[in-house]
Amino acid sequence: MLRTEKATFASIGLIEDFPVGLGREVRMGNVQIAVFRTTDGIFYALENRTPHAKGGTLAEALVSGHYIYCPIRDLKISLETGLVQAPDTGQVRKFDIRAVNGIVEVALNGAPECTVTE
């Protein structure tokens, strides 16, 4: 039997708190998430950690269309899937995100709280 779990969304800020074309770090419990808003107004949320073995954060990545470029390793990562583009490999954890009535919300079941950091 397949069991599905309904996502719980937590508010992380107002739409205007997230500039177009830039990333912003959000902490939910002990998880760091990089939130991106593209020029066409779509929000994406990825774990704020590059999949490269030496690590690094993604919130300061360069945004180009629906891709980001890791600021340390220059990996091209799809905002839609979290997949690193060839010739590199890897994947970043992706989170569901939505904007409802001017509020941006991220799904992360079990997160006790969230705060937006500067």
Describe the structure.
The protein is built from no helices and 11 strands. With about 120 residues, the chain is mainly beta.
What tags apply to this protein structure?
118 residues, mainly beta, Rieske Iron-sulfur Protein, five-stranded antiparallel beta sheet, 40% strand, disordered C terminus
Write the layout of secondary structure elements.
Blueprint: E1 9-14, E2 23-28, E3 31-37, E4 43-47, E5 62-64, E6 67-69, E7 76-78, E8 94-95, E9 97-100, E10 103-107, E11 114-116
Antiparallel strand pairs: 1-10, 2-3, 2-11, 3-4, 4-8, 5-6, 6-7, 9-10
DSSP helix count? 0
Stretches with pLDDT under 50, minimum 5 residues: 110-118
| Total number of beta strands | 11
- How are the strands ordered across the major sheet? 8-4-3-2-11
Classify the secondary structure makeup into a structural class. mainly beta
- CATH topology name, in short, is Rieske Iron-sulfur Protein
Listing every helix as H and every strand as E from the N terminus to the C terminus, the arrangement reads EEEEEEEEEEE
Oligomeric state:
single chain
Radius of gyration: 14 Å
- The CATH superfamily label reads Rieske [2Fe-2S] iron-sulphur domain
Global outline: globular
CATH class identity: Mainly Beta
Largest sheet: 5 strands, antiparallel
Task: Return the domain count.
Answer: 1
